[in-house]
Amino acid sequence: MNHHRRVLVAAVLGLQALHAGAADAQSDTLRGPRKPLFTWRDVTFLGGMIAITGAVAPLDKRIAERLQDSTVQENRFYGRVASFVRSVADPGAVVIGVSLYGLGRLTDNERMADLGLHGTEALAIGTGLGWLGKGLFGRERPFVELNPNDYKFARGFGNKSEYMSFPSGHTIAAFAAAAAVTSETSRWWPNTRWIIGPALYGGAALTGVSRMYNNRHWASDVLMGAAIGTLSGLKVVRYHHSHPHNDLDRWLLSGSIRAAPGGGHVFSWSVTPSFMP
Asked: What is the Cα–Cα distance from 60 to 239, expressed in whole angstroms?
């Protein structure tokens, strides 16, 4: 296997390895309600990801150069895969999440609505954190100049896309969705944890690689995006299931369309949450 393919494989495997760490952090969620929102597993996971990001940062330029090699860029398969996974992550993740929520409400499928709502919520939180990081770090994207050390505080604010490289927003979206869906489905079907998780995190990893392939992000941008997205997904699910009667769930998971006794359908929605003991 030639060198540039080894770089691609190593990037995918490195990102997919997040699933193991995320599964450990997620295990607290599966043990029942009333767990603290943040645990020592989260600190360990985030600390480990920061350390890995720092270790990879000196290789940013070398990885970018390899991925922009003409033999890689001319490969139509790589190009099609990169385009597809990028679209699935953003805006695909938002479209899927909102659609699941809407369909769940229309069909009175609580699990589907729950999955859509919490997945979309994780995306919103992760995107917000990513926007803040992009603005504060003001890192220059690799397509502007191949200088991974070009940071300037607060330069990324003001719609200056070329200075919004760190962290990767598409990667945040992909990992937030993967973490939220994996965490939710693990509660319902624990035996599928090691099937659904690797599949979703693997797809999220490909999203990160696609952003490097398209010369929009450095490898360290992608790794930090993966960490932010994963924690966003896990924290949203943990919060909602350790606070099962929170206002947001009672407002947004309370509507449905049902068949009326005399024919037709009846739409119902509780605007004011019914406070439960």
From this structure: 35
